[in-house]
User: Fold these one by one.
Assistant:
Number 1:
Amino acid sequence: MKATHYSISAFFPAYNDEASIGKIVHAAAELLPKLTDDFEIVVVNDGSADQTGELLSQLAQQYQFVKVINHPTNRGYGAALISGFANCGKDLIFYTDGDGQYDVGELLELLAVLNEEVDLVNGYKIRRADPWYRILIGWLYQSMVRWFFSIPLRDVDCDFRLFRRSLVDRTTLTCDSGAICVEMIKKFQRQGCRIVEVPVSHYPRVKGKSQFFRLKHLRRMLFQLFPVWWKLMVAPVVLRCLHFIKLQSQARGKA
């Protein structure tokens, strides 16, 4: 008996993840048939310089339900997500990173709380498996975006999510960096998205370094966050104030 009546797109953005992406795809290929008869696996290779592309080509030949999208050059995490979402065609989208820091098997924990009253199930790390300085930077970043964007999630950058594809179908995402996570959640929230949070495990990276903590990436992400903050948080307040002033002016003119 299948665990869900939904169809599922499992999506994994990958950048220089030859050491982990194969294991992730194999795990998903074993798990998904147990959950639904209608599924697919989508992987975006974001201009990897290692053997990620070659490995994904082999996986696409091995599994007919694996779809690989190749970016000729590295376009950024947000660009990889946008490409992946655009190529997901099932009812639900489950995505996590291709670096192996999350367990695909914990998709079951997300599905367990998904119902007609929930649009998005967002994971949060039980314990972050990173060096102390990354934990500190992550905490500062999380605190900043929660305050500036009024996002109630405890871990907005936990990229272990399950949500209805209809959310991205009616959402325009613009950030090509890691800022996309804040943009996405805030725009979902403005649509009235109903969110539930679930604790998930977090593991050390198998190989390579996180792109999130590089100075160049952080600077780019912060530069992209500002216009998103202005458009989603400041501009609506300004417009309401201007509308109020206009109404007051019209009322005085009639008096």
Number 2:
Amino acid sequence: MVIGIPKEMKDHEFRVALTPDAVHQLATRGHAVLVESGAGVGSGFPDSEFEEAGGRMISSKKELFEKASFIVKVKEPQPEEYGFLLPHHTLFTYLHLAASKKLTEALLDIGCTAIAYETTESPEGRFPMLYPMSEIAGRLSIQIGAHYLEKLHGGKGTLLAGLPGVEAGHVVILGSGTVGTAATRIAVGMGARVTVISLDLDALKRLDDRYRGRIRTLASHQIRLEKFINDADLIIGAVMLPGARTPRLISRAMVNQLKPGSVLVDVAVDQGGCAETTHPTTHSQPVYLVNDVVHYCVTNIPALVPRTATLALTNATLPFIVRLAEEGLDQALQSHPGLAQGVNVKKGK
């Protein structure tokens, strides 16, 4: 199979779909791997490493798409890339179509097959390619929130860790999945006061058992939610429904009641966001204010640590890429039901 790895075009997206080691594994299996020049530089992988691994460097994005039948990316195609996709292509990447009608319609019009990392399942029913990036985003969300709580960056000037005689900052985390659990770990480590609100009582029990009184866990309820986010210095939106739009838990009226200078980091923005006031931002312009509340809603948070993120993502994606390359699309989907779950669009449907 001819596999194409284009350079990412999303704002400040420095990750690359595969490492040189992964390219070597595919090349030794007899597959041709085309890599767009400069695709790995942002992650610390120069063109020379891909060439040494058996990849073929292509200087033109158009040429890469024309020659490859299997396109492997990190993030969803940008509007500038729609014209490169062809009906015979199989596209494997993060798609998040629930939050983008425009991209969905574009892929339907093209007629290609698009398989989403975030809805592909393991035999155990887990989401192996969603997990590592969610883990990274969850950990980073607290660092980012602490940064924007600084007065210089629009926040109220609260130190999450507090000081002897001074109360620590209050972090409210909405959701107890991978993002919420990772955010909890970092927030506790920084010494913040932490409240986790979730519908998943089993997950809350696991967090209670792990932190033994160092955090507060609450079953999600609208009145309770309003009470605790009103007291928050930092709110982390960590709610996710696989393949569906994130429910809006925080209304505009609720945002208007938050403390001036408080910060909302909505990690759920990829799937539409959990606040009515959420809209996607970029690393170039990551924040905006609504009623003096700082909103950070970047849709590709893990791009902040592209080296770590690329290594982690490749670990998760490579087994699926090998299956698709070795068996072909139709046989791979028939043989691996979890991979079939990842198909979001196929031949215009």
